[in-house]
Amino acid sequence: xxxxxxxxxxxxxxxxxxxxxxxxxxxxxxxxxxxxxxxxxxxxxxxxxxxxxxxxxxxxxxxxxxxxxxxxxxxxxxxxxxxxxxxxxxxxxxxxxxxxxxxxxxxxxxxxxxxxxxxxxxxxxxxxxxxxxxxxxxxxxxxxxxxxxxxxxxxxxxxxxxxxxxxxxxxxxxxxxxxxxxxxxxxxxxxxxxxxxxxxxxxxxxxxxxxxxxxxxxxxxxxxxxxxxxxxxxxxxxxxxxxxxxxxxxxxxxxxxxxxxxxxxxxxxxxxxxxxxxxxxxxxxxxxxxxx
Length: 292
Prior knowledge:
The structure is a single chain. By secondary structure, the protein is of the alpha/beta class. 48% of the residues lie in helices and 12% in strands. Strand 6, helix 8 (175-184) and strand 7 (190-193) form a beta-alpha-beta unit. A six-stranded parallel β-sheet has the order 4-5-6-7-8-9. The longest helix has 21 residues, at 51-71. It has helices at 21-30, 51-71, 76-82, 89-97, 114-127, 136-139, 146-159, 175-184, 203-216, 229-238, 259-270, 274-289; strands at residues 4-10, 35-40, 102-104, 106-107, 132-134, 163-166, 190-193, 220-223, 244-245. The protein starts with a strand and ends with a helix. It is globular and about 55 Å long.
């Protein structure tokens, strides 16, 4: 059975970890995972925060962005976020060094415009990157800002790649906002990243909203990183089985949500349906990302 981890990180990921190419390959070998798609860490390796400073920093960013989305007040902090350039060097190095086993995605700040779009074109066309990632709180925008994201979605359609969006965590990332984006750009496949993370809504409230959105929009996909067994089983039973993806978000997934636990949850949620398990663990991702 082919297994694809469609979203994980390399390099510094806050205080959670600092995985290298060798660390990732070791984990893939341990759990018989064929491919992983890498997103960049959040900063160069030497700038690791402590858990306490990381929490304070994240809280400050989310409060600042929430105020901006509510009032439109353009503060120096918002300007800094909207000018931020993600750190892609380690993703590029890993993709080049591992002969297709480790693949890349491009974390795009939509405020940077055409200069950044050219980098995305090169990453997809020359380096084989598999999708565009958006992180609304990190770059101070909302997922349903259709005017801002129109050039991004146009680019994704031209390159024939999906858009993966940080979801259910922080301002601008609610499922209803992703559904509005999907409705506005029906020709682009949109992945609701770690949509079951339970930071905006508890699991009991979140599940029916995610299921309804995924079933209502043919271009909405569900990323299962951070999903517990209850959430995973609900979406496998009630959601679009051809648009569900296995991802770890490692090392952001936390100490309790290990790769072993996630794989066990997927197998338990699928039960005796081996075809469904194959779809979720790898076949759906293989088709969506054109991984041969």
